[in-house]
Amino acid sequence: MNDSTASGDDSSGNQAAPPPPKAIAKKKRNLPGMPDPDAEVIALSPKTLMATNRFVCEICKKGFQRDQNLQLHRRGHNLPWKLRQRSSTDAKKRVYVCPEPSCVHHDPSRALGDLTGIKKHFCRKHGEKKWKCDKCSKKYAVQSDWKAHSKICGTKEYKCDCGTLFNRKDSFITHRAFCDALAEETSKPPATVSPLSPPTAASSPPPPPPLPSEHEDSTQTDVVLPDNNNHVTEMLESVKPDSTSGRTLDETPVMTNLTSGSSSNGSSSSNVFASLFASSTSSGSFQSQTAGFSNLFQAIACSDPTPAVAPSSSSEPVALGLAVNQGSSIFGTAGPDHMQYPPAAPPPSLSATALLQKAAQMGAAASNTSLLRGLGIVSSSSSPSVSHDGASLAAGLGLGLACDSGSGLKELMLGTPSIFGPKRTTLDLLGLGMAATGGSTSGLSVLMNGGLDVPAATPFLGREFGGQDIR
Amino acid sequence: MKAEARGKNPSPTMSSMQNPSLFSNSRSSISGAVLTGCLSSLDGACIEKLLLHCGSALESNDVTLAQQVMWVLNNVASAVGDPNQRLASYFLRALVSRASRLCPATMSFKAAGIPHRRLMSVTELAGYVDLIPWHRFGFCASNNAILDAVRGFPKIHILDLSITHCMQWPTLIDALGKEPESPPVELRISVLSWRPPTPPLLNIPIEEVGQRLVNFARYRDVPFDFNVIEVGGPLDEEETIFSSSFYDFLLSQLNATMVKVNAEEALVVNIQNWLRYIPDEETSSSESSCDGIMSYRDSFLELVGRLSPCLMTVVDEDCDLGAQSGLTSRIVACFNYMWIPFDALETFLPKDSPQRIEYESDIGHKIENIVGYEGPQRIERLESGGKLCRRMAAMGFISVPFAEETVKEVKVLLDEHASGWGMKKDEDGMLVLTWKGHNAVYAGAWVPHDLTSHQNNLLV
Question: In A, which residues are within 8 Å of B365 by CB distance?
Answer without folding.
Answer: 319-320
